[in-house]
Each structure stands twice: as C-alpha cells, then as structure tokens.
Amino acid sequence: MKSNINIDAIIIDSVSHTYKTDTGLLPVLKKLNITIPKNGFTAVVGPSGCGKSTLTKLISGLLKPDNGHVYLNGEKVLGPKPIVGMAFQNPVLLEWRSIIKNVMLPLEIVPNNLSEIEKEERARSLLHLVGLEGFEEKKPSELSGGMRQRASLCRALVHKPEVLILDEPFGALDAFTREDLWQVMHKLRLEEPFTGVLITHDLRESIFLADEVVVLSGRPATNQHSLQTQKLKNPKLDSLFSDNSIEMLKNLRKQIEIAQVQQGEI
C-alpha cells in the first residue's frame, strides 16, 4: 500500500482487469488511476464497452482487479463493503414490498443498531427529502419511472454509506425527469454527504453533477483526460447554457471522439 494514500479518498491505483470470454481474453482496463477525495463526486465517461461498469464492480468489491489495487478509506478492497451504496439504471424494486419497505431493505442486511421505529423514521425522512412523502405505502408498479428511481436512491443511501456508486441511474428516463433528478442529487449531496462515483453517457449530466469528469480511453481503458468542473455547490439547470459549460461540453465531446476512434467505433 502506498504511503501517500489519503484515508479519506477512493483510490484506483494502477488497476488493470481482463475478462475471459469464449473467444479469448478481453482486456477492459489498463493501469487506470483515479483519486476521489472525501465527499468528492467524480463522473466517469467513455465509449460504450470501455469498462465503466467494470470499474464500479471493482470499487464495490464485487470484482478483484488482475493488477493494481482499489482502496476505500485507506483500506484495500478485498470484497463487498457495507460502506458502499449502489444505484443502477433499473431500480429493481421488489413489487411485493411497499416503497418504504423497499427503502428499508439495506437496514435488514447491513449491521446497524437502529430500532425498527428508527429504521422506518430514517426511510421516511429520505423519502420526504426526494419528494415521495405520501407514497410510502404504494407498490413500485403504482409509481412512475422517475419516482421509482427516487426510491432507489433512497434505498442506496438509507444505511448512510460513505461511498455512493451510480451506474447510469437516469439513463432510461425522459429528459425532463432526468433533469429533475439531477437537482434531487444536488439536494441529497447537501443533506446526506457521500463520496460519489457516477457512470454516465450523458456529458451534460457529468458536468452538472460532478466536481471532476474522467474520460476513459478506448478499451483497454486508461486515463485519457480529466476535467474539473469548478461549479457552484447547488447549480441551476440554466448553468448548462453558460459559455463555460458549452466549452466544457465541447472539450469532453472531442475527447470522447478520440476514445471512440481508439476503440474502432468511428
């Protein structure tokens, strides 16, 4: 373990990973390095299939890298950790459970000292925070896609994880709902601080939500480009039309095109 590792950060330290497939070995990550400070928020973008989702599995401990190491709070990741919360494109809520019972599910799995009343109060406070007060007893099928995704975010945060991994959680939503949830995410960051990793194909989403955007190269992916967004803590959607945002988007689009050429997509 490196002596300069900050215990308050996520460290992706020269990580490489290869999958074994029916047609042979498929290298997806190569000597990737990413550092995220405590309560920082980093978005990861790149060509389809370049290893973004693999990165989330490595951070969460669901996969082990072939080479290099992943550290959370100064400790090497050797398996799944309860300090990590995850939200995906598909909310995967259990239809036979009410919304509040879905949100409380991690508290039934992750060790904690909360009473049943405290668990329910915790879930209700999060649902209120994201605008789902009054829907606690509804079933998932009774909610819209955006509402289900709000519930999924609550479920990912209910056990107060130190790290939140978001793997394209808004990708399947319509534009208006997606932008609404971007603002919800800023509210959650202020009220429920966490260190965030966002996987996305939406460049506007990346600069609106993240403090830093990391562009991965074509597969096997490594660091190609990093952009600091330098934005306000609670930006408005109108900020996406500013000259600074437009310039950042142009920069990122150019980097994505370079990565796509490397991967043979264009």
Per-chain topology:
Layout: E1 9-21, E2 24-37, E3 41-45, H1 52-60, E4 67-72, E5 75-76, E6 84-88, H2 99-109, H3 116-129, H4 145-157, E7 163-167, H5 175-191, E8 195-199, H6 203-209, E9 212-216, E10 223-228, H7 243-263
Helix pairs in contact: 2-3, 2-4
What does this structure look like?
By secondary structure, the chain is α/β, with parallel strands linked by helices. It has two domains: 1-83 and 163-172 and 194-266, Rossmann fold (3-Layer(aba) Sandwich); 90-161, no CATH class. 35% of the residues lie in helices and 25% in strands. A six-stranded mixed beta sheet has the order 6-7-8-3-9-10, sandwiched between helices. A four-stranded antiparallel beta sheet has the order 2-1-4-5. A hairpin with a 6-residue loop joins strand 9 (212-216) and strand 10. Helix 2 (99-109) crosses helix 3. Residues 1-5 have low confidence and may be disordered.
